[in-house]
Amino acid sequence: MDNSFSSLITSANSILILLSDKPSFDQVAAALSLYLSLGGIKEAVVSSSKPMTVEFNRLVGVDKITQELGNKNLTIKFRNYPAENIERVSADVEGNEFKLTVIPKTGLTSPQSKQVELSSSGVASDLVILVGGNNDSDFSSLNTEDLSGAKIIHVGIKQLLASPNKQIMSFTLQVSSLSELVATLIKESNLNLDGDSATNLIAGIEEGSNNLTGQGVTADTFEVFAHLLRSGGVRQQKGGLKKEYPQGSIPTAPQPAPQSTPKDWFEPKIYKGTSVS
After folding, report:
1. pTM of the predicted structure, to 2 decimals
2. For a pLDDT cut of 70, what percent of the chain falls above it?
3. Cβ neighbours of residue 259 under 8 Å, at least 6 residues apart?
4. Which of the residues 65, 84, 144, 228 could staple to 233 if both were Cys, CB 3.0 to 4.6 A apart?
5. Considering only CA atoms, which of 210, 221, 153, 175 is closest in space to residue 12?
């Protein structure tokens, strides 16, 4: 059986990309880019157990990262309504439409519409991709029973230390950053690589490799970086506004403001010399 990354993606029906509980910028950029590359090819979800913070806002599509593992099931909850007030719940189909009726006990009121809370849950994914992390304990979501039937693989620049009761296949390569590894996997698997994904991966490589100066940076790193630029990726400035200068000008340090001209500058001057005997 072919267990290459490409074949696992191809054979999967639905994919869950799971970030570690404390993801780095490089890891989020890599996971998000992998998710975007699967768009239109596979049903995919990218999930984090913690909400995204402001440091990740410059990544394209960061709003696609959810704290839910899937949306297989719809859950209906009545907020601040005692369950003991309900006599029974009936379900019917009327004109091809599903109808749910909540019947309260005699003398009690039914839940109000403002108390209804809808949420999605349940994992339909048959392939889970762990991004980053050092141990399987870095992924608290792995403990849910919803993932018990899914195949789990790991993508990282370090081998994942897994518990003996967990079968996790690891795709590990010691390179400059996780974004470099994911960029390579996307290319080798013939997945979609648009400008947004390439831009995220460029930012991830720069962060993960300390602007291409860190350990693990090789000639291959620069080849991957060039490939991302040719694919429409853009290098972003980290914070601050970019100053625009006229073409051909040379930016210099700000010059001090000129001092005002003295009032007597243009008045006639009388100079007195000394006599020489």
Report:
1. 0.71
2. 81
3. none
4. 228
5. 153
